[in-house]
Amino acid sequence: MSMNNNNPQKNSPFGNSLQTNPSAHLQSQGQSQQQSGSPFSTQFQLSQYAAAHAHAQAIAQAQSKAQAQAMAHVQANHAQFQAQLQAQGMSINQSHGHFSGGSPSFGLANSGIKRMPQKPVGRPPGVSNANTVSPMRMMELTPAQRNKKKQKLPEKQLLERVAKILPQSALYTELLEFESRVDAALARKKIDIQDAIKNPPCVQKTLRIYVFNTFANQTRKIPMKPNDEPPTWTMKIIGRILEEGMDPEQAGMMQGSSPMYPKFSAFFKRVTISLDQRLYPDNHMIVWDASRTPTPQEGFEVKRKGDKEFNVNIRLEMNYMPEKYKLSIALMEVLGIEVDTRSRVIAAIWHYVKARKLQNADDPSYFNCDPALRKVFGEDKVKFAMVSQKISPHLSAPQPIHLEHKIKLSGNSPVGSACYDVLVDVPFPVQRELNALLATTEKTKEIEACDEAICTSIRKINEHRKRRAFFLGFSQSPVEFIDALIESQGRDLKLAAGEASRNAEREHRAEFYNQPWVEDAVIRYLNRKPATGVHGST
C-alpha cells in the first residue's frame, strides 16, 4: 500500500537532532504479542479543540483499563491497534481541518472505501495526556538530550554554531588560544623547575671541619666523696661551609653554617670513630651510618668517662651526589683529574680527543689513541660508545678522610684548634626561590572563580542558542518543524518504551497490510468511528 503525503519533507532548521522521517504506526499482531500487549497508545495532540483533546484522553484511559482486565492477547492487540489508528486519524483530521478545512482521503488496496491519509506520528503508544508535557517544553528538552550523545566539548570552548551567530566571539576565541599558549608555557617551565628542585645544580664550596674536645671533673679530690661526679670528656666534630669574601678566622669555629646549605652530616656517608681499645675494651668503635639516620645533623658528639689522655682516629667517608670515583694513575695523568663523576670523566676524554684531533677520519665513531691513551685503553683505536665500559677498571671508590685527634684533659677547655678543609659540591642555593616560584604558578582561587564564571556564561549562551534555534525553525516552517519534532520525540520514546526492535520500514510496504489481522482491524476501526464525532467521507 502506498501513502500520499501532502506535506513534502524538508530539512528541519532546528539542527541535526530533528530529522523528518515519518513512519506509520500500524503494528502487526505478532509484534504486539512479543511485547505482551504492553505498548501504550499514541496521543500527541496539537489541536486546540478541547473536545478532541478530551476524546484522546478518554481513549488512553480506555486502553489502560482494557490492559488491566487481562484480555486475551489477540483481542487486546486488535483493540490497541484500533485505538491507535483512531487517535492518529483524529489528530491529523483536526490539524488539516484547521489549515484547509477539508478532509483528504487515501485508497486502501483491494477496497473501494476511501479514508483520509494519516500523517505518521513518531510517538510510541501508551503515553497518556497526564504525563505529556507541552510541545514548547519538549522542544526545549530535545537539544539537551541529543547533545548528551555527542562528544563533550571543553566547557570554555564556544560552539561553532554560536560563533556564527555572535561575531564578537572571535575576540574571545583569540583570548582563549592565547591563554592556552600561556598555560602550555607555564607547564613547561613548571616541569623545568621541578627538575631543578630534584636535581639542583651544584657549586664547589669549601667545607671546614673542626675537631675538639671538652672535659669536666678532671681535678681529683682527696678524699673522694660518694656523690662526686666521675671525670668525663666530650669530643665534638662540627663543620660549616665557608662563605666567599668572609674571613674564616673571624667567624670562629662555633658559628653555625648558613641555613641555605645542607647540614654537616649530609656530606658524609659513614663516620667511624676509633677509641683506645685498652681504655675502652667494650665499645671502642663508634659508627654512624647515614642510612640508619636519615635526619641530617649539625655535628657529631662522643661522650665518655675517663681521666687519661689518648689519640682518637676518625674516618670520614664522603657522600658524593652523584657518585664520584678516584681515577687511576694512568687516567689521572691524561686528564689531570683525581676524583670526579663518571659523566665528567667521559666528557674530559672527549675534550682531550677533540683538542688533539684524534678522531678517526675514516670512521668518526672511533678515535685514535696517542701514547697516553694507549696506556689507559691498551688499544690503538677505541669506539666512543665503549669508553664508559673501558674506563670502569680505572675508576675506584675514593679514599676516606682520616683524621687524628688527641684527647687532652688539662688546660683550657675546649681543647683543639685544628681544622680541616674539604672541597664539596653544594646545591645551588635557589631552593626557596624555586619553591616560591613554583607556588605562584599554581592556580589561585581568583583564577578558578573566573574560570567558573566563564563556564557558567558559556552554558547560558548555549542554552540561549538552542532556544533561538527552536523559535527560528518554528517561524520559518511551522508544519515541517512540528512534524520533525514529533518524529524525533517519537524515536526517543520508542527507545524508552523498549520498541527499538520495531521495523518501521516494513510498515511502508504494501505486503505488510496483506496479513490476516488487517481486515478485522479495519472493520473495528470503522465501527467505532461514528462515536468519535468526526465526519469523514467513506
From TrEMBL:
Cite the residue spans of the region called Disordered.
1-41
- According to the UniProt entry, which residue ranges have a biased composition of type Low complexity? 27-41
Q: Boundaries of each DM2 domain copy? A: 320-397
Question: Pfam families recorded for this chain?
Answer: SWIB
Which CDD domains does the record cross-reference, listed alphabetically?
SWIB_like
Which PROSITE patterns does the record associate with it? Answer: SWIB_MDM2
InterPro entries (alphabetical): SWIB_domain, SWIB_MDM2_dom_sf, SWIB_MDM2_domain
Which residue stretches does the UniProt record annotate as biased composition, category Polar residues? 1-26
**Which superkingdom heads the taxonomic lineage of this protein's source?**
Eukaryota
- Indicate what this protein is called per its UniProt record: DM2 domain-containing protein
- What is the organism field in this record? Tagetes erecta (African marigold)
